[in-house]
């Protein structure tokens, strides 16, 4: 892509430069501590893609002397079926005691008729609140191998690498400035201060915080213009900071620059405790159990976890390199496969998992 500039080395506040994708194979010389991961397969295609992610993550860890201990818990619809609630206390206890949380997908048609406070999505909102995971990070990366799959012209999207940071608190501005400082030192604040009073306050706060980061170029843009520019000139953006509602709009729009939700990870972090790492896509109940899902976003979510929560940039780079190799070798799941494209092979979810595992193991 090369999964653009790589997520490795971008942990907010660490002050490390971004790393390029490392060679897939690199032997470890020391044995490090066991990293405790709370694993939440969730609903729909979640168990399928999570199974692949944990296998590939463990293999990548072994190359670098890192070990992962997985504790599986229930959340969402699966938790409702088993316990009657979307977020059992046992899940919260395990999550709080872990080094990080890896989540696959939540929800499905089966639970759509439940009262709003009992629906699967309440489990996700609840665990984010319990872990104080206030900062949501959404990368929007267009791999060069898949630039032709975008609904936009290749020259507009090839090389796009945007990080959208969203929430409605002052500390999110610091997270965004720290992230920009580790990338291209450019931050765009998106609001609607010409109409909304809350956006006027937002702008004042961002400008005030920006004075602490004189090396970061700060710009401002109204949400309507930002939505247009994201399609007209997406390469203009590097790091975008905005409130939760505007961020939801822009991150969903940006996710389609790559042509598929099956490629993009996300993170919800607190800066003090375990974060939550999950694909942007949903549970896709219509293809659940049919071996048709794309596991790449789940793998990239594990890479983000290694970067932001576990401080394992070498493991993250190995995961990214495995994804790059799979795409370079032409392997495509149905959502990113284009009929007639030379050098590509249509594979199932499990087959993509085998390709990724072989890429890591060498």
Automatic annotation (TrEMBL):
Cellular component aspect of the GO annotation: cytosol
Highest taxon in the source lineage: Eukaryota
Signal peptide: none
Keyword set, alphabetical order: Amino-acid biosynthesis, Branched-chain amino acid biosynthesis, Leucine biosynthesis, Magnesium, Metal-binding, NAD, Oxidoreductase
One Pfam family matching this protein: Iso_dh
Span of domain Isopropylmalate dehydrogenase-like: 36-356
Keyword set includes Mitochondrion: no
One term of GO molecular function: 3-isopropylmalate dehydrogenase activity
Family recorded in the similarity comment: Belongs to the isocitrate and isopropylmalate dehydrogenases family.
Name of the protein: 3-isopropylmalate dehydrogenase
């Amino acid at each position: 892509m090369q999964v653009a500039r790589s997520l490795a080395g971008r942990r907010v506040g660490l002050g490390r430069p971004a790393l390029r994708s490392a060679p897939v194979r690199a032997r470890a010389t020391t044995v490090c501590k066991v990293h405790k991961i709370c694993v939440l397969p969730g609903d729909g295609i979640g168990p399928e893609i999570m199974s692949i992610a944990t296998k590939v993550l463990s293999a990548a860890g072994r190359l670098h002397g890192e070990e992962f201990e997985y504790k599986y818990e229930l959340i969402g619809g699966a938790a409702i079926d088993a316990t009657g609630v979307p977020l059992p206390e046992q899940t919260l206890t395990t999550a709080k005691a872990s080094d990080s949380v890896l989540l696959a997908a939540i929800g499905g048609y089966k639970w759509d008729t439940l009262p709003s406070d009992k629906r699967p999505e309440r489990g996700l909102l609840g665990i984010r609140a319990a872990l104080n995971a206030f900062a949501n990070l959404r990368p929007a990366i267009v791999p060069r191998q898949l630039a032709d799959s975008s609904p936009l012209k290749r020259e507009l999207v090839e090389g796009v690498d945007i990080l959208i940071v969203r929430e409605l608190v002052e500390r999110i501005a610091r997270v965004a400035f720290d992230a920009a400082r580790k990338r291209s030192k450019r931050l765009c604040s998106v609001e609607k201060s010409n109409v909304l009073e809350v956006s006027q306050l937002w702008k004042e706060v961002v400008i005030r915080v920006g004075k602490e980061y004189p090396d970061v170029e700060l710009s401002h843009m109204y949400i309507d213009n930002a939505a247009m520019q994201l399609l007209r000139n997406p390469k203009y953006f590097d790091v975008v900071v905005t409130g939760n509602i505007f961020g939801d709009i822009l991150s969903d729009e940006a996710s389609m620059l790559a042509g598929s939700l099956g490629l993009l990870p996300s993170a919800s972090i607190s800066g003090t405790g375990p974060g939550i790492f999950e694909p942007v896509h949903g549970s896709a109940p219509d293809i659940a159990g049919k071996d048709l899902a794309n596991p790449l976003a789940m793998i990239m979510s594990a890479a983000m976890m290694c970067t932001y929560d576990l401080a394992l940039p070498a493991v993250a780079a190995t995961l990214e390199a495995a994804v790059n190799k799979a795409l370079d070798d032409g392997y495509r799941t149905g959502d990113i496969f284009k009929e007639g494209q030379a050098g590509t092979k249509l594979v199932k979810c499990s087959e993509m998992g085998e390709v990724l595992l072989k890429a890591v193991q060498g």
